[in-house]
What we know:
Blueprint: H1 2-20, E1 26-31, H2 33-38, H3 40-49, E2 54-59, H4 62-70, E3 76-80, E4 95-103, E5 105-110, H5 121-124, E6 130-132, H6 137-147, E7 158-160, H7 163-170, E8 176-180, H8 181-189, E9 193-195, E10 205-212, H9 219-235
Parallel strand pairs: 1-2, 1-3, 6-7
Antiparallel strand pairs: 3-10, 4-10, 5-8, 5-9
Amino acid sequence: xxxxxxxxxxxxxxxxxxxxxxxxxxxxxxxxxxxxxxxxxxxxxxxxxxxxxxxxxxxxxxxxxxxxxxxxxxxxxxxxxxxxxxxxxxxxxxxxxxxxxxxxxxxxxxxxxxxxxxxxxxxxxxxxxxxxxxxxxxxxxxxxxxxxxxxxxxxxxxxxxxxxxxxxxxxxxxxxxxxxxxxxxxxxxxxxxxxxxxxxxxxxxxxxxxxxxxxxxxxxxxxxxxxxxxxxxxxxxxxxxxxxxxx
Length: 247
């Protein structure tokens, strides 16, 4: 708790210095990779247009960003909720989770083969894959999906730490991967990948706006949260009401 207070104090000192120089204070936002593709660019644009401060973006895993938030090194996090991503820490009840939207998941492939066709799980079990690390919730979901059909998910020929790497490797290849639908749509338009035409049973990833209880009165955090909530609610149905514990 003392470490968090000290980090918050350091941020306040920096903000005062910025104001003394007639510069805007800085909003420190942590973002998981899948949230970068969906609403963040538009949210920042509207935030700045409404008089919001400068924004610093830090990308990372949900667990890493939540620890940074808890320690006062970030003002808020746009991240997904899962038991695996929740770090074990004293005082985690001080974090407030405001559900925003659920990100659909899809299986994709490179466009080295020109023809678009329906693909079965049996065929996918024989393909080469680009996959996230073994402890990621998305890879675990995909593994379970194959097991429910009596199949094993192949070991990846390439293992990545984020979706940007996967999309780069997939481009115009004959490889398969699993990524958020919003990221896939963008690269489908560029002609780099295809979304595999098949029914899948992967659970959408819930994405939330996360802040410390002590930051509820932060004007920039409040403004950014309202803008992000409004943008995400226009196209997707928000999840449950806000709570302090999350999943």
